[in-house]
Amino acid sequence: MEGSPQTWHYGLIARYWAEFNTEGPEIEYFQRFVERGQPALDVACGTGRLLIPWLKAGLDVDGVDVSERMLKLCRERAESEGLSPSLYAQSMHELDLLRRYRTIVICGGLGVGSSRANDQQALERLRDHLEAGGTLVLDHEVPYASAMDWPYWPSEKRKELPQPWPPPGDRKRASDGTEYSLRARTLSLDPLAHSVRAEIRAEQWKDGELVAEEEYPIDLMLYFKDELVMMLERAGFKDVEVRGGYDGGPPTPDHRFLVFSAKK
Ligand SMILES: C[S@@+](CC[C@H](N)C(=O)[O-])C[C@H]1O[C@@H](n2cnc3c(N)ncnc32)[C@H](O)[C@@H]1O
């Protein structure tokens, strides 16, 4: 496993992500921001779910991710499409690239395997990587959206943690014929720090036999709307706007994801 900060996007999890997470409304939604401002940087680009369709659309986008394993799978997929993106293995809180961007996108990446201090520093590093007038746009899942974690905020419920492993998830067949299943559980929740420690287990099956099994822990940060707005402002951003993900309308209590945009 790679060093700090720690995500769970390695090994079988990375393979699962590359095989099965290739679609979603975020691709088109964030693409509109990229079309309005290039060059763009896809931060926490993973296996290229957003990056590769954008490159195929002729957009000038680089990618960065902390997991070399995710980047390797991204590069392989890009090459199979005849593309050769600039991809960098860096953590966003220590981002140090030569190029400056009109748009920076983070989809599903802020607060993953992180801490409040690292996320604040990441926002500052991202601002430094924008051209004057450039836009940062990111999404974040609100803390109260998770039926798995939200019940554990009161101390009485937290005594029940860690959760036992749930039953195995449905197996999905990958392109090489092996099958994968994932399950996750909550280990602990810290309402003061607004963080959850979770654990994921991935299993790989071949011809009905379990051939590989991996487990990874992860710390996930839980930000409320106004908290993230203040973090963006503290990082020096202006014109911070919040929308409901991914319909472009105003945020409502029922939006699971919020989208934050901010200008340098
Ligand atoms: C939920 S995945 C999202 C991937 C991609 N943006 C997408 O939407 O398909 C989160 C990604 O964040 C990456 N990541 C986690 N912590 C990071 C950090 N500190 N800096 C850069 N990338 C990070 C993980 O390796 C993983 O690829």
What does the model show?
The longest helix has 13 residues, at 68-80. The model has no long low-confidence stretch (mean pLDDT 94). This protein has helices at residues 11-20, 25-36, 51-56, 68-80, 116-128, 155-158, 225-234, and strands at 40-43, 61-65, 87-89, 101-106, 130-141, 172-173, 179-190, 195-206, 209-221, 238-244, 257-263. The protein is globular. It has 264 residues and is α/β, with parallel strands linked by helices. The chain is built from 7 helices and 11 strands. It has a 7-stranded mixed sheet, with helices on both faces. α1 (11-20) runs parallel beside α4 (68-80). S-adenosylmethionine (SAM) is lined by residues 5, 7, 9, 21, 44-46, 49-50, 65-67, 70, 91-93, 107-109, 112-114.
Characteristics of this structure?
four-stranded antiparallel beta sheet; 11 strands; seven-stranded mixed beta sheet; 31% strand; 26% helix
Give a nutshell description of this structure.
The chain has 264 residues and is of the alpha/beta class. The protein contains seven helices and eleven strands. It is globular and about 55 Å long.
